[in-house]
Write a structure and sequence with these properties.
By secondary structure, the chain is mostly beta strands. The protein contains four helices and 16 strands.
Length: 346
């Protein structure tokens, strides 16, 4: 019911000419703390949900629906399902929604034994020196190790995001401006009507570039037919890279994943050009993207064979004032790719 209330409220706000919310902007900037009983816990995709029952000032009970991080993101930091017990009293910190009357963006949990758990990628500790969670606690150890002694060779294996600060800088120089500073007014206008919560809860899968460039494991698969498959563990949506393609990309119908043409620059470097993308959002903060977007991906295999550096360059003359560049490093941690079963929250 509260989702219907939100949609109506969005229409009213838009018609009034006011700024509509986007991404998590419908959550208050200020922090809130709540204490209550954990009545349900959904350890699921696309995000984990806690349900906390509190007692209001008038004595009535209220159940808060609390969205938090992904299983992989917090799992790499040592946060597990068995840390939480339904029926126990916990304290939480995060941000209340300005629109949904019972929604909460959960970031920190204080357990009955006094230990604290961070349930998003990055959040400061609030109550305890004994803290589990946060991406700065990542180790270069697979969350789900493969049962096979090796999951591939060369490019064609599973690559996992490295722990922050654990490896030297990527092969490519940094210093690129942040995405927000590159957005045009057209892109910002699209973002004004974005609601990340509603998108997640519809279980709609994103297109490029977001579908393949999150901090989760990735895999290259050689199809032995002048194509390769590239897939991310986060959404498990396979892309096809076409090598030696004779197809004119301009003749291919647009799609959320576009048409990707790959070529080997040398024995260690794969370059992929993708056009024909009709996914309307540049990322899951709702920044707008046009069908003129072009994405270049460069993947460079380290000489040691257990490291992959990458650089993603996104050019969109309608939605970006300059190319946006994303770089990073993956490691071979012998990780197994998981399944992705999205669950709609009732």
């Amino acid at each position: 019911m509260h989702r219907l209330v939100f949609l109506i409220a969005t229409l009213l706000i838009t018609c009034a000419g006011a700024q509509a919310h986007h991404s998590f902007a419908h959550f208050e900037e200020g922090w809130s703390e709540l204490e209550g009983t954990l009545v349900d816990l959904r350890w699921q995709n696309p995000h984990i949900y806690f349900f906390l029952e509190t007692e209001e000032e008038n004595g009535e009970k209220k159940v808060w629906e609390m969205e938090t991080g992904t299983i992989y993101m917090i799992g790499r930091a040592g946060v597990t399902r068995d840390m939480f017990t339904v029926g126990e009293t916990i304290r939480v910190a995060g941000h209340k929604s300005r629109v949904y009357p019972d929604m909460f963006h959960l970031k920190n949990v204080l357990l009955p034994d006094g230990s604290e758990v961070i349930t998003v990628a990055n959040s400061p500790a609030r109550w305890s020196d004994e803290v589990t969670g946060g991406r700065n606690q990542w180790q270069n150890v697979a969350l789900h190790a493969s049962e096979e002694p090796a999951n591939g060779a060369g490019f064609f294996r599973v690559w996992s995001p490295s722990a922050p600060g654990s490896v030297d800088d990527p092969l490519f120089p940094g210093g690129n401006p942040g995405l927000n500073s590159l957005l045009t007014d057209e892109s910002r206008a699209v973002r004004e009507n974005w609601d990340a919560y509603a998108f997640d809860n519809s279980c709609e899968l994103p297109g490029l570039p977001r579908v393949n460039f999150g901090p989760h494991p990735h895999q290259f698969i050689d199809n032995k037919d002048f194509t390769m498959t590239f897939v991310s563990d986060e959404f498990n949506v396979p892309r096809t890279f076409h090598l030696h393609s004779q197809v004119d990309p301009a003749t291919v119908s647009p799609s959320p994943l576009g048409y990707s043409v790959a070529q080997w620059e040398d024995a260690y470097t794969l370059v992929v050009e993708t056009t024909g993308i009709n996914f309307p959002y540049l990322n899951l903060s709702g920044a707008g993207q046009s069908e003129q977007v072009r994405i270049e991906e460069r993947y460079v295999l380290g000489k040691s064979g257990d490291r992959m550096d990458y650089m993603i360059t996104i050019t969109d003359p309608v939605m970006l004032t300059a190319p946006y560049i994303q770089t990073g490093t993956w490691l071979d941690l012998n990780e197994a790719m998981g399944t992705y079963d999205c669950v709609v929250v009732d």
